[in-house]
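Let's practice the habit of predicting before peeking. Look at the sequence and jot down your guess about where helices and strands might fall. Then scroll down.
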Amino acid sequence: MRNISIRKMWVFTCAVEEGSFTDGARRAHISQPAAVNIIDEIEETVGEPLFERSGKTRRATLTARGKEVYETFVRTLSVYERALESICSSKRQPRVQKILIQSPYVGSVSALWLHRLTAHQSDTQLCIRCAAWREIITAIENREDCMALIDGDIRTKNSEYFNIGNVEMVFVVPETNPYFATDIKEIMWEDVPADTLIFSDISPGALERTYDNLRSAQSAAGSFTEVSCTTILKNVCKEAGVPAIVPKSLIDIFDDEVRFCCRPFAYSKLFIPLGLSISHGNHMRGKIIGRNVENVFDNRFYV
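Done guessing? Here is the structure:
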């Protein structure tokens, strides 16, 4: 009879995530030989090696089949944890459903989409709020019960990802800046002024690609100022008249007190993947699958 208990799945995932049988055993609060025996049992049950071997030595590196088993175990453990929380609640306290929206997209999310998404959630306490990119990633990695709107094509082992599209990084100029009056339709990376602000609450990969483009075009790429708060960004651009490199969604934050123009880059255009990340076992998953996720935003600022 095939039987892999929840406990054994947990030991297996600990070994994988710690990258070591010894460290995995310590995290699972068992001895290293006991962890190895459990992994032996799982491999015997599956019927093939799940970890790579170098001669007679087995390393804590998964084979292709091992990756499939690991992902299955992660999903199973997440569902198990949700079920356990549900049946062990003595007072049947409503569960808290977090909906985290990354800061550059807060102003563009459709209120109607949010209303439809959260309708008929009488047994759930909803918490909808703005969050920074790193905070969202931490919540996902900690297996928190949440759904997040985030950029960067997040494919963590603890969640599912539903792609919406790609948001473009653009050059935004206030009317008090000399670049505002020019007739150019696009900006060259080498022409970006040194006082340009760079909005930094985006995925680290996208931020690094922004600097790569600047470094390739000009030697002083390290002197730019990063801003992660949308309110500070807007105020500094408006009051000091400085331009900024931002996700295109942020053009919505600039009001009518000062006019701004938005110019794309002439080459090496930078697009950031954008999507919804939903933790395994999250009961709102059914409201996303098969639906038109384009309705997430009021304005079509993405491609």
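How did you do? The chain has three domains: 6-88, 95-163+274-296, 166-271.
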